[in-house]
Amino acid sequence: MGGQIRDLPEGFVPQLTKFLDEVEPVVSEIEALLSKNKIFVDRTKDIGVISRETAISYGLTGANLRASGVDHDLRKNQPYLDYERYDFDIPLGTVGDCYDRYILRIEEIRQSVKILRQAIEKLPSGPINVVDPRNVRPHKTDVLTKMEELINHFILHTEGVDAPAGEVYFAAENPKGELGFYLNSLGGGAPHRLKVRSPSFTSISILGEALKGHLISDVPAIIGSLDFVMGECDR
Question: If DSSP codes are grouped into helix, strand and coil, which group holds residue 58?
Answer without folding.
Answer: coil
